[in-house]
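Appendix B.2, paired examples.
Example (i):
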Amino acid sequence: MQGSVISGKDTLQLASVILLKTVFADTTDKNGRFLMNVPTGKYQLRISFIGYENFQEEVEIKPGGTTIVNADLIPLTSQINELVVTGNMNQATKLSSVTPVDVYTAKYFQRTPVNNLWDALSNVNGIFSDIDNGVANTSDIQINGIEGNYTEILIDGVPAMKGLAGIYALSAFPTSIIDKIEIVKGASSSLYGSDAMAGVINIITKNPNYTPTFYANVELTSYLETTEDISASFRLKKVSSLFSLSGENMNTRWDLNKDGFTDVPLTNRANLFNKWSFDRKDNRMAVIYARYLFEDRFGGQMNTPGLLTGSDQYYTERVKTNQWQAGFKYQLPLLEKVLLVGDYSEHYQKAWFGTNYYNGKQRNAFAQLSWSKKVAGHHDLILGATYRMRYYSDNTSLSKDYITGSGNTSHIAGIFLEDEISLAEGHKMIIGARFDYNNQAGPVATPRLNYKWNSKDEKNVVRFGFGTGYRVPDLLNDGFGVINGNRIVEVPVKLTPEKNLTLNTNYTRVQQLPFGILSLDVSAFYTYFINYIDPDYSTTGVVIYTNTKGGLHAPGFSGNADFAFSYPLKVGVGFTYVNVWQVSTAPDGTKQRDPAVHSPNFTANFYLSYNFPVPQLSLDLTGNLVSPMLLVTENNDYRPTRSKTYSMQNIQVTKKFKMGIEIYAGIKNFFNFMQTDPIMRPFDPFNRTINVNNPNGYVFDTEYGFMSNEGIKGFVGFRYTFH
């Protein structure tokens, strides 16, 4: 038996190679290779090296042949040494980045099978996945308690998922093409422009150079929901390409809470993704990509015949989406690092909300030219210019001049400059600023300042940050969600740009112990909105948007601990406490605090993963805990104004076979938590009997819902990977 031991591109010398319960053992040479003369039979092979996870698998020695084992060990510090780019657009390890960046790889999300981005982010500390509508299940992602409309979502560094795309694309984006997700919490408009007020979520798609030749994943749930993911990659000389096809089908109606409405919308979805990477001189980047999404989503009364829409007898909501996107990244053939990025997308949507018909289209364009250079040995400069265009039109008032302020098209042009300064050993600082001009809002300036200190052994890191953010008023992100909740939008005054600032401090500790590595991360933060556009839900059937000076406060703190043992056990726990409130003026002129709706004060999450080397079985436990939150209620509502504390917990078992085959099964939400009464008066969706036995004047409304009503759900799946 012979083989090699590596970690990524590095060979590992003096790694221990042992056949358990035998006398056969060896250590690797300077080339990471080992050789043992072993009799025929089956053995348990264990390879270990200090600072790395143990490698163990069953090997069979057959007569007349040579068994070859090539082991790729995973560093215990792999998470903190992960390369990130979202902090300041330049590559750095997570530990050395001046800006705190949370990194979640595809392996992390496989602990609980998730079929889309919204599911994946629900297991991340400091992020709360919220359902905004109890029928169509429109979704929202909050960072540190701040509504999802204030989070900038990027795909490979390109702004995406705003306007029409922001309503449904979180649950329509497949995880099969995600390599990792990088998250920066706090106002970040100085680098990423409009909308980066709560933070940035950067989805890094897979690199065709490093993806398997073929990958397939098929999953079936107890709700008779199926998910299919297929991808293939190939290489021709200096060109690599990745093709991916993902689909989801849910065509069975369920009503477990017995309110007469579907708990989960019927869904048929398809995603196509293609990415090409070209080898160039001096490793210069050249990438082109394209993506297409089709989705047909239907929800409503259980007794609706077929997929009937627009009826005044059966209340239904149906959304048909077609979206395509294409772009490129190209590093110019210059001595300096100059990167040109271009992206264009179109989104078409037809929808029926009860008897209301919606037809909208949106076009987005993005271009960015950035230049990076090291100056005088201790200055890393980034200078860039950006342009964004968004065209939107529909058959509602959301695209009218009195709502948008400037018609159908929005243009934002800007420049930004950042300097990362190495002050002294262990001390770094970033000074940055951005200046944008928008045809709706005029000029906006957003500075930022970050500082990092690390000890000589790099086991202790302290960071301080000050960032600013802004957002051009865009009621398509907000108003569209309330129209399908049976409310209308009113804008009594001209809306001005929202602005905020974030102060944060972060401490990271990495402690190597004899049996593993412990990573600790603690943060405190405060976000303050200088101007906040306040959606007022207090009037039945209406949402009113106005400017609010000094509107919103969000102070809080968070902690996270991860322990990677040298044996195959990983555990982690995280929590976030945030208190979001708005300052308003009471009728008597006094100031008062109003807590934010759908924003829990405390959230926590955990995971535990253990791999049984024999018989190649892994066990994953994941879960979260969510404290009560204020909900949108009607006047004299009989339902509680706050939700109950709840926990969603999941278990999964995965069995690995030879030839790249895996079978997994498990239970999601095994405590079967479900929200009660997410819809007001579901028996009268057209308000025909509101004057009968209805002394409080309740009307049909779907805004009370805050989570999916799936309940407990079993799943089983099959994966195949061919390298």
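Example (ii):
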Amino acid sequence: MRMKKKVLSVTGMTCTSCARAIEKSVSKVEGVANVSVNFATEKLIVEFDESKASIEKIREAVKRAGYGVLDDREETIREVTVPISGMTCASCARAIEKSISKLNGIKEVSVNLASEKARVVYDSSQVRLSEIKNAIIKAGYTPLEIEKTSYEDSHQERKQKEINSIFRRFIIASIFAVPLLLIAMAHVVGLPLPEIISPEKHPLNFALVQAILVIPIVIAGYKFYTVGFSRLLKLQPNMDSLIATGTSAAILYSIFAIYQIAMGNYQYVKEMYFETAGVIITLVLLGKYLEAFSKGKASEAIKKLMGLAPKTAVVIQGDNEVVIPIEEVETGDIILVKPGEKIPVDGEVIEGRSFVDESMITGESIPVEKTPGSKVIGATINKNGMLKVKATNVGKDTVIAQIIKLVEDAQSSKAPIARLADVISGYFVPVVILIAVISALVWYFTGSSFIFALRIFITVLVIACPCALGLATPTAIMVSTGKGAEHGILIKSGGCIRNFAQNHNGCFRQDGDNHGR
């Protein structure tokens, strides 16, 4: 039996009930030994027997549950703009495009003759930037220094777009919710309304204006309905299902009230709940924004750790010193590190003598002497001498990359209390719906009006929110592990934080110290 552990990025989750639904679906795949979904980090951690299960089957299980899985390639898609010299006409641009497009992993290539630049979108897992440059050279032209690389952190970019989208929808909903609430409640608090929409003189206009104002709010919160009702149909209701059901009941009854007003039953002018639905959607959108924002802020520690490593390296090629992006450095390259510069990758000193500040890794404030044969760590600072370093570990194999992976794993892990919260929230939503239905029926059959029973039904649905239950602990773990990493303290998992007060051995350690402190 060969066990394998894999971490996948999941999309489409809106609450911890979603995480629970994914865990149930994936756990049914034959060969899956352990599965954990962290709502805060949107990560699926699965351990499975390779002889029975596969990543493809696991992806299908997630999709059957109604959610998406980011392809590994989506995480490795990059875009570069390469300045090129030597082009004289459109044929030159075409020749370069043909040469680059022949490489595996090239998604898109466009050469602009006027700006003398090539824009290339490529899969970094299939083709290296140095190969793209070589393709340009083979075409007979000279690639210059890369201007910039984007998509270095596709997850952060995706999350920022999500945060911006939610914020825009909240603003749109707020613009219409405020006047909707004022119009609906004006007669209650004694505020004057224009005669044309006065509930006493023009009740139908009063009702129609509210209906018109609630439409853009519903559109802004459309995901509550698409996701919520989809989960209901799959018998896996989540928080969105509560919002969708409650607000739909309010809106549908309000539409019925408009019909009654149009028929002359003016007493229904006080039986409309458009403002209830509109304000609920707006406030929940605000909550979603604050939730997404807090999750984004909590994961910024990873971004800061990535920023510790230098972006370029000076590689000795023959008699020349060539500045190349750090991604192009390969094992065996000879790198020149000048005084005051960061060492680009892990390696071994082959020439020179200096002192290196390794405090960001080991916590040792005194610089360590380095001579030929000494090991050096990427992102540490060369203090006073010139060093020639042979690269031994690059990319994901460097110490700083391993630290980043450790922090990511810790942020994705679940403390026992978080697992309990997920289990509770998984049952919470259907129980809330059941309680809402029972409450409404009890009030109705004990003599209350249908309107009052409906009000009870909506109230129970919209005040119940399991998200705080399932989000609080994962977010706390993300923040604590990230802050710890910034100060040189590595935390293996969320469970270690819980156990620290009782027995901290093996849970916490200073960077570079394997003995535990």
